[in-house]
Amino acid sequence: MRIEGIRNEEAVFEEVNFEKRAEAIDILEFHILDTIEGIFQKEYQNGDLNLLKLQADLLKEKLENIDKKLFLRLHEELRKSTDKKLLFRQIIFNYLDDCIREIGQPVKIGYDNFDVFVDNLLTGFNQTKPEPAITGEPEMVFYQKTPARIVFEMGELIGTESKEIFFDLGSGLGQVVILLYLITGIAAKGVEFECKYFDYAKESALHLNLSDVEFINEDARNLDYSETTIFFLYTPFKGKMLQDMMRVLQKVAKKRLIRIFTYGPCSIELVRQDWLKCTNGNADDFYQLCEFKSLPH
Q1: DSSP assignment of 163-216
Q2: How many C-beta neighbours within 10 Å does residue 293 have?
């Protein structure tokens, strides 16, 4: 029985084995509890199934409580640390060794345990995600979180010794900005039009005592990017809004060379810009991190 197998695997209950525990929780939730729920919908409940469901629920809760204590402790350590970049890397390599090895490998679609870990680490397992307070313009794209492995891949390309400034255009809940800062240590900013998302991101950065992290509640097309050299877009808008943003960035590129990282459908629009060159392929895969560099003016 799978429940008994998980109970007897001591490593699952050791705090450091997050990935093993995540796999066990998935088995309990999607292979056992969901199956039982499906049976309950078709047939009358019976004593054996009720007992099995109770055992699975209790075991899942026990494993989740280990994670909750783990993330509360790690979040507090990160908040108090005077060398957050070093501590963050140590945490990631200690708990996500398998995931780290997959960075830069063939394109992987969707979210995984890497995202679960990073999300809970940055929030301390304890922050409720806000609902949008305003209705955006029709060409604004609804918020989707950038996969953590994409931000790590971008961080590796930017490097840890850079003195440049990074700007996330359409920063949502702020995770890309915060993650990029923790990975590289460079100054990182995000602009977000939705006020609830902006408040959440600002509070997250303040709670972690992050220096050189800033969030701005504004239309991205209206800002001064005179000091920024690295940009990121996870398709925050489309159509005319995206074209307008390209014209803003082109003006910046006329004064100095810039780099633009993209993820999602917006990469196709950047390929069409004659003042940009994609440095890592054809930018024809929505699930690939693309890097563009401006051409000398």
Answers
A1: --EEEEES-TTSHHHHHHHHHH--EEEEE-S-HHHHHHHHHHHHHTT-TTEEEE
A2: 14
In this structure, what CATH number is given to the domain that contains residue 224? 3.40.50.150
CA distances from 141 to 14, 150, 260 (A): 41, 19, 19
Measured CA to CA, the distance from residue 13 to residue 43 in angstroms comes to 34
pLDDT digits (tens, 9 = 90+) for 200-244: 999 999 999 998 999 999 999 999 999 999 999 999 988 999 999
Q: Are 192 and 170 in contact (CB under 8 A)?
A: yes
Number of domains in the chain: 2
Q: What values do phi and psi take at 231, rounded to 5? A: -125, 155
- Same domain assignment for residues 209 and 295: yes
- 3-state secondary structure at position 144: coil
Q: How large is the greatest C-alpha to C-alpha distance in the chain, in angstroms?
A: 75
